[in-house]
Design brief:
Helix content is 40%, strand content 21%. The protein has helices at 11-23, 37-43, 60-68, 84-93, 105-124, 157-168, 176-183, 193-206, and strands at 3-7, 27-31, 48-52, 75-80, 97-101, 132-134, 137-140, 145-148, 151-154, 216-219, 223-226. Helix 4 crosses helix 8 and helix 6 crosses helix 8 (193-206). The model has no long low-confidence stretch (mean pLDDT 83).
């Protein structure tokens, strides 16, 4: 059974969400403090973390950094209504999706199922084989890691999927719609925030100079391209 971790200092909301997801056939654990999360992840396997931004002690961003230090599990962030900066910061820091409070419960449940499906499919049917080798970069499909001149890095699922998709189409210009539908596995809607956030995080890990990328290049007005010159 798929299991999710609900992280929110609002106990009533957390327990309501737990009952709701359990009615959907999922197991759920509640965590009322961000500081407890690393220990929870070490003791149990989760397919998704639903993480509130506004919490006392360790807030959502501190908690997400701790999660990403040990796991590539998908993270769905809950942010306050109209808090655009938190959404952008969350996506850039490693969140896979976000919703604003107050939210529609049915939509939240649909997003939970969508993220779990993609994560499960990735881990059950992930591509294996020889590493992909480029100048100064090795992409390892077996371990979801990249190796650059600056070291070896683990990549969360979205970052790895996007990188491999672009690398396997080396030299080809890929539109945002093509990338979104291949990586997110759902029809493209005009919301480029997710794609831009993932590419920004990748460039910080891939590139010696993220402002002048060698690998993942922007083709103005068209999309992105994995350079044919590497």
């Amino acid at each position: 059974m798929n299991r999710i971790l609900l992280v929110d200092d609002d106990r009533d909301l957390c327990e309501l969400l737990a009952r709701s997801v359990e009615q959907e056939g999922l197991a759920a654990d509640c965590c009322f403090s961000g500081r407890e999360v690393p220990d929870r992840l070490a003791r149990a396997a989760y397919q998704l973390v639903v993480l509130d931004v506004m919490m006392p002690g360790a807030d959502g961003f501190e908690t997400m950094a701790a999660i990403r230090a040990q796991s590539g599990v998908p993270i769905l962030m809950l942010t306050a209504k109209n808090d655009h900066l938190s959404k952008v910061r969350g996506l850039r820091a490693g969140a896979d999706d976000y919703m604003t409070k107050p939210f529609d419960l049915e939509e939240l449940l649909a997003r939970i199922h969508s993220l779990i499906r993609r994560y499960t499919r990735l881990n059950q049917g992930r591509e294996t084989g020889s590493p992909l080798r480029y100048q100064g970069l090795v992409i390892d499909p077996d371990t979801h890691t990249i190796t650059t001149d600056r070291g070896c890095f683990d990549l969360p699922p979205k970052e790895f999927d996007l990188l491999v998709y672009c690398a396997r189409h080396q030299g080809r210009i890929l539109t945002k719609a093509q990338i979104y539908e291949a990586v997110w596995g759902e029809p493209y809607v005009y919301d480029d925030g997710n794609i831009m956030a993932v590419i920004s995080r990748l460039r910080k890990k891939l590139e010696a100079d993220p402002a002048h990328p060698r690998y993942l290049q922007t083709v103005k007005g068209l999309g992105y391209r994995f350079s044919k010159d590497v």
